[in-house]
Amino acid sequence: MSWHWLEVGSYIAVTSFLVLTAVVTISFHHVPSLSKWLPESCVLIILGLAIGQFLKLLDALPIDPIANAEQMVTNDSTNCTAEPAEKYPFLAFTPRLFFYVLLPPVILESSYTLYDSDFASNIGTIMLYAVVGTVINTFAIGPALYALYHMGAMGDGVLLVNHNSTYTLTILDALIFSALISAVDPVAVLAIFNETHIDRILYFLVFGESLFNDAVTVGIYHTLLEFAEAAEPVGAGKVCLALLNLVAIGVVGLLIGIVFGLVAALLTKTTKHVRVFEPLLILGIAYLAYMSAELFAFSGIISIIGCGLVQSHYAMRNVSRKSKTTVKYFVKMSSAISEAIIFLFLGLAFFMERHVLHTGFIAWTLVLCLVCRFISVLLLTDLVNSRRVRRISFFEQFIMAYGGLRGAVCFSLSHMLLPDVVKPRELFLTTTLAVIIFTVFVQGITLKPLMNLLNIKRADDSKDRPLIVDISENVATLMLAGMEQVIGITGHFSVFSKLLQWDEKYLKKIFLISEYEPDVLRAFKRHARQLPRIQVDVLQPGAGLGEESVQQGRQIKTMLHNFRPMSFMRHSVDDDTCELEKLDEPAVCFRRQSQIFNARQIHGAWRRQTTRENMLNLDEA
């Protein structure tokens, strides 16, 4: 019997780390007194702190994070010289691990969630918050920090670069820091808002903004870093080119995602006889969309969002129900475990980094992050409310501003900073961690009580809305589109209606299988599957019933094979028994839990349904 730790030790350690994360998460939800007031993300960060302290005692933590950060940015594999990092590579939280491994499952699962009419109807408002709001925060926090520093409001006239030297803050360094600290983290937002069961529209406004906010933030961050690396004066021409580059990063990233989504739809049209590969195609192509965009320095986040939305619209209708279920739960599982690992690593980061603490800089950063976000949300909401049918209330605006949580995105961006380019790197890392802890613990813990205090509308507990709601929304959209065409304007509803018509006429014929189900039928089947099966009891003669009544009941039982559940007329009673003396013509009772259908009701509903179908056939003739 031999010991093979060098060969299998790292695999055992990674697997044990994942299992431990799952066990802690499950245990947390089995303690209602704890999960009622403490968010899951807080518990995972605390666990990360405990693991970090334990590993520090074992001298098992990487001790050269600056070298690792340089390696991640420059992609120079020859710089990996830190011995602890080589010995325990799975313990190092690197930007490459976050952006290429942990983040894509979270964004993909979120993109499938965004395939919703509420998101589509609020896309303009979401993009306004994500783009304009991020720009406001970036170019308000940075100059404000720079001005406060030079006014002496932070106390010290110099900032510590590390424990041995000092540095005077520049405006470009302040802007780089404000760009990364403006990143509202979708992982933190998703973790908190899923626990609060917030209203659907408010959920999509905050969560959708956090997704697109990251894409804008990363683009601004890299643009400012290029200015810092060039070490040249920034003129108007460079600013214009930078703006065009930001637009190209998002637009081209979206196009890459759409193209990969359409490729997935075409491939899944050919998998009728090989269903086992359908989940692999959908998940693999989505990840390829993300990595392809990153390969050419475009936005991988926007790319995988676009790919996920296109897959939800086309590819998911081509695959079998089992494949769809496999994709759904695999993405949910990988997203949940990625979120948990991210928060654990945030706790470990307190022991893996060298910190420079400047209380004045941290305090002013926290104040400016809150003030600037509240100002941007209030200003932009006042602008969009004048054109919205469903206005965003002041209390909802407060929750939107207060729910701007920071997390692993801004920490990863701060970790990517090179000390040769941005001198106060360690100060920025420490301040970023302080902001993350404040937003996740203070704002995250108080968010749910604030929602109760402000009486914020919560989402319905049922996962699926009633079928009548979906039908009514479609009818209302078509009516409003017709009204816009009558009065001669091109509005949201008419454009949306034309896109749907174009999709039905051309795109679905190309990217969907010939036997795909229309949206209305899919929604109907989804709701019908939730109904319990109807049990039909035909009473025999001898119970006070004649042969004619029993024969009628048998005929009705045969009808049910082709009968539509939507046409049933219900007759509710208090118990499950069919009391003959309480029903009219009770020859046959149809039981469904506490609802009983008698023969007269079923036969009448069937005749009405048949009459409607005959009338439709005559109209078509």
UniProtKB/TrEMBL annotation:
GO terms for cellular component: plasma membrane. Pfam families: Na_H_Exchanger. Its main location: membrane. Keywords: Antiport, Ion transport, Membrane, Sodium, Sodium transport, Transmembrane, Transmembrane helix, Transport. GO terms for molecular function: potassium:proton antiporter activity; sodium:proton antiporter activity. The chain crosses the membrane at residues 12-30, 97-115, 127-149, 169-194, 201-222, 242-267, 274-290, 296-317, 329-351, 357-380, 392-415, 427-447. InterPro entries: Cation/H_exchanger_CPA1, Cation/H_exchanger_TM, NaH_exchanger. It is found in: Membrane. Belongs to the monovalent cation:proton antiporter 1 (CPA1) transporter (TC 2.A.36) family. PANTHER family: NA(+)_H(+) EXCHANGER PROTEIN 7, SODIUM/HYDROGEN EXCHANGER. This is Sodium/hydrogen exchanger.
